[in-house]
Design goal:
By secondary structure, the protein is of the alpha+beta class. The protein has two domains: about 100 residues, 2-Layer Sandwich (Phosphorylase Kinase, domain 1), CATH 3.30.200; about 240 residues, Aminoglycoside 3'-phosphotransferase, Chain: A, domain 2 (Alpha-Beta Complex). It has eleven helices and eleven strands. The strands form three sheets. Strands 1, 2, 3, 4, 5 and 6 form a six-stranded antiparallel sheet that branches. The chain has a three-stranded antiparallel sheet with strand order 7-9-10. Strands 8-11 form a two-stranded antiparallel sheet. Helix 3 runs parallel beside helix 8, helix 4 packs parallel to helix 9 and helix 9 packs across helix 11. It is globular. The chain binds adenosine-5'-diphosphate, 2-acetamido-2-deoxy-1-O-phosphono-alpha-D-glucopyranose (GN1) and magnesium ion. Magnesium ion binds next to loops.
Length: about 350
């Protein structure tokens, strides 16, 4: 348990902190002090090994976005995160071996855990698209790689095979069917990385964690207002951002739904996201990127399922879990989604053609 008073002292604040949000990685708290709200976060340093570098990335990226919005005559206050410095002017502080940062709380916004209405997903795509466009001239060499090989699915597959071999928790025997599902797709896991190596899929500045709940929507207009969770902003492929958003948003139920008959890729939602994405970025996509759009949804979903399953086999050491089999439930929804996306590939191609 963190000592909130000791952390807030660093900011000259003294008030209670309330646990907040549904992230799998960091610990998030809502703070209310002198009538103003703030977000306090413990950066998970087992995952982000260098919190100072993460903060450097975030400061660079948010300043770039803010400057650009100002130059367009727009007010950046609710459109990008603002890091609140400590009393000694630092963007994060260390307390008892943990690292904390604070942001302004962007009020009158909502986050969604599922796409409640298809149009929300169109708006999400526009929001991520705008984020991406604002960063299109950001110097990628200024970014630290906060998690190396984050979407290197081939490397992730090797890690997964090692988890199965090591079988730290003794759970591998319980999930032979799921392991086999992944093994059957081993030949596909390097498809995007191979194109990156060839140069047919360019590296750009990408978000890399485009889950629906990493975007704040305006409570009144439902417009996508602000892209958050910037820890993984790194050079990557736009296919990672497209595929990962579809992984989370086309599934009509929770990521850990136990009833797999409820889990499928909702093609109407696929269409809404694709429409918004292509409207925002269609003119910059290469031929190879366009060709790989439907596959990227499958691959990013497969990758995430593989990570959940590996973590289950490793004994739940990476993703936060709230009950015993949660990582397994999460892995199963992802694999069911992959299966359904594979069946719907032709439909996806048709939709993409309609908007390109
Ligand atoms: P994690 O890395 O654990 O996913 P996030 O940065 O995504 O953490 O934050 C978790 C949740 O907290 C978000 O989904 C969002 O609902 C809320 N949140 C985070 N930052 C802000 C902010 N600045 N203003 C309002 N809500 C926020
Ligand atoms: C994690 O931090 P959060 O909850 O937005 C994870 C993503 C996964 C996602 C699965 C740094 O995202 O890569 O796709 O869970 N983030 C990290 O829900 O590993
Ligand atoms: Mg998040």
């Amino acid at each position: 348990m963190v000592n909130v008073n000791k952390i807030l002292e660093k900011y000259g604040m003294n008030c209670p902190a309330e646990e907040y949000g549904d992230g799998h990685i960091n610990d998030t708290y809502l703070i209310e002090y002198n009538g103003e709200k703030y977000i306090l976060q413990r950066i998970n340093h087992n995952i982000f090994k260098n919190p100072h570098e993460v903060m450097e990335n975030i400061l660079g990226v948010t300043k770039h976005i803010s400057d650009k919005l100002v130059s367009k005559g727009e007010d950046p206050k609710r459109r990008t995160l603002t890091v609140i410095n400590t009393l000694d002017n630092k963007p994060c502080c260390e307390v008892d071996g943990n690292y904390f940062r604070m942001y302004n709380f962007i009020s009158d916004t909502v986050t969604y855990q599922t796409v409640e209405r298809p149009v929300l997903f169109y708006k999400a795509a526009k929001g991520f698209g705008e984020f991406f466009n604002l960063l299109s001239d950001y110097d990628a060499s200024k970014l630290h790689e906060s998690i190396p090989d984050f979407h290197n699915t081939q490397k992730r597959f090797c890690d997964f095979e090692n988890s199965v071999k090591t079988n730290k928790s003794g759970r591998a025997e319980l999930v032979e069917k799921e392991i086999q599902f992944l093994m059957d797709r081993k030949h596909e896991v390097s498809r995007i990385m191979d194109e990156i190596k060839k140069g047919t899929v360019p590296l750009r500045v990408t978000h890399n964690d485009t889950k629906l709940n990493n975007i704040l929507f305006d409570k009144i207009t439902d417009d996508a207002l602000c892209v958050i969770d910037l820890d993984t902003v790194m050079p990557g492929s736009v296919l990672f951002d497209y595929g990962d958003a579809l992984r989370f948003g086309t599934n009509p139920v929770a990521e850990d739904e136990k009833d797999l008959s409820k889990v499928y890729c909702d093609i109407e939602k696929f269409e809404q996201f694709t429409k918004g994405f292509i409207e925002s970025l269609g003119n910059i996509l290469t031929e190879k990127e366009i060709e790989l759009l439907p596959f990227s949804a499958q691959l990013l979903t497969l990758e995430c399922g593989m990570r959940f399953l590996a973590d289950y086999i490793d004994g739940d050491i990476y993703f936060k879990t709230h009950y015993e089999e949660q990582n397994l439930d999460r892995a199963r929804t992802q694999l069911k989604l992959v299966y359904d996306m594979e069946l719907k590939e032709e439909e996806m191609v048709k939709i993409i053609k309609k908007y390109i």
